[in-house]
Amino acid sequence: MLELINVSLEQPFALAPINEQIEAGELLGLIGPNGAGKSTLLSLISGYLQPGSGKIELLGRELSAYLPGQLARRRALVTQQMDSAFDWRVDEFIRLGQQHSGEPCPGIVDALDIRHLLGRGVLSLSGGELQRVTIARAMNQLGVSPLADARDDDQGCLLLLDEPTSALDIGQQQNLMRVLRTLAGSPRIAVVCVLHDLNLAARYCDRLWLLEQGRLCASGAPAQVLSEQRIAQVFAAQVHVSTVEQRQVRIELLA
Amino acid sequence: MKAAGNNVRLPMLILMLAGLCGLLVMCSLVGSIGLSPRILVGDLPSALEWQVWSEVRLPRLLLAVLVGSTLAVGGTAMQGLFRNPLADPTLLGQASGAGLAVSIWVVLFSGRFAGLELYGQFFAGFIGALLVTLVIFRIGRGYKGRESTITLLLAGLVINTLTGAIGGVLTFIASEEQLRQLSLWGMGSLSSAEWSTLTVACVVLPLTLWVLARCAGDLDLFQLGEVSAHAAGLDGERLKNRVVLASSLGVGLCVALSGIIGFIGLLVPHCLRLYFGPGHRLLIPASMLCGAILLLIADTLARSLASPAEIPVGLVTSIIGGPYFLWLLLGRKVREF
């Protein structure tokens, strides 16, 4: 679905050349320490930043060749922070940027457990509630939910999320990752998600990209990427990694 | 106060439009010379009354409607663009920038371009407002939340003080007649309304209102923040250019025509947002109507309270708007900034 061909970026966001692909039907996790370049890479993939060299193709067409409206039907982005100056009602906020006609895509509101928030203003929400509402808006922009696909064409789409679980409680984290897992189960949808919780990344993602100082230093299935040695090297953290199932790993911090 | 639902917002717009029409009728009859309502149904009055109504009152009311609408919509659009409820043409210095440019034109260039006096003044107002907007935009960039508000207010304070100081210097080189002209105009007044000056306003101001109204959907998206708005399909640079140019043109022309009339661009969108919510598709038409209504009322008070003398309407709006702004700063709403 998305291909990065020798993509790099100069200072101040320096990213070393990356050659990778993101396939439809996969949930890809971007992991790495603070300042490794995860959000910068997400901005590149979203088309907000232009690569210094190389090119990014979405559905076989270079990102820069899309008009803003066309691109908005193909990919949506949830940024780390959403600080609205004005008190949008949640149901109106979710409709912002909606690319399909009619009502918001069914299933989003219940899947993200925000139905009880619909009549409230976004300024009155807690950080976690606002984060779920912001994710709902991005899903509605694309017209996708775990229950339905409201898009009126048969091309694929890409959902990009930058630390979507950072303000969520443990139950909501699990729920969101399940929702993203279900979305990525569709052969037309790919989900890319920046995560700091390595256990969440290991549990739910099909593949991981590990970034360190602007360089993609590992890519592959969680069990391949998350080794004790690599985590110690990249994160400077002492952990114990155990294999719980055939493909899955669990990471425990050592005292 | 919680914003009303969609089912009651549209009828409210219609009610406001009806209110504006009713006010226009009432205000056309009130003033230092009271007119009989019979003038409205074709019952011919005296020549003097007819002249007052058609040559003085009507152009003035029309100017009040145009200027009030433009200042309110300009404020709404600037608040949307800066994502900040304090972005008002007066507070940010747009109006005083336009005012200074007009003063420079009057003092240094007036009389040198025969036949272009009025247009030169309009153009100066536009350039002054545009320059200040660009400077403010540049300064406000890169700041977020409370930091952005404080930076913008400080920048506005500096620009207002600076333009005031340069304006003060101009008074030393201005002639007696220019001084009198500038001091009356500077306080904000619609008394210069004539059909001849209105022709430009009738073309340019509705045009700027139309451009800003067309930006409503994009301004909504812009509230997501630049990165998210881009991802939602917005061409942010195009939106900024359109809003900055249109609001500068509108505010610049309003200042050239009627001096600095403060607080309309701050008060109107803020009050309306409480009822209509932050969506610009309703907020902009509502601001047009409410701005016109507010300035019509303020101007009628200005020319009636001390009749036959006239209080500059800018003083009336400041007397209403100033305390409201202070209440805003003191009240709990300040947390939203």
From TrEMBL, chain A:
SUPFAM superfamilies: P-loop containing nucleoside triphosphate hydrolases. InterPro entries: AAA+_ATPase, ABC_transporter-like_ATP-bd, ABC_transporter-like_CS, P-loop_NTPase. Signal peptide: none annotated. It comes from the Bacteria. Pfam families: ABC_tran. Keywords: ATP-binding, Nucleotide-binding, Translocase, Transport. One of its GO terms (molecular function) is ATP binding. Residues 2-238 form the ABC transporter domain. PROSITE patterns: ABC_TRANSPORTER_1, ABC_TRANSPORTER_2. Part of the ABC transporter complex HmuTUV involved in hemin import. Responsible for energy coupling to the transport system. This is ATP-binding cassette domain-containing protein.
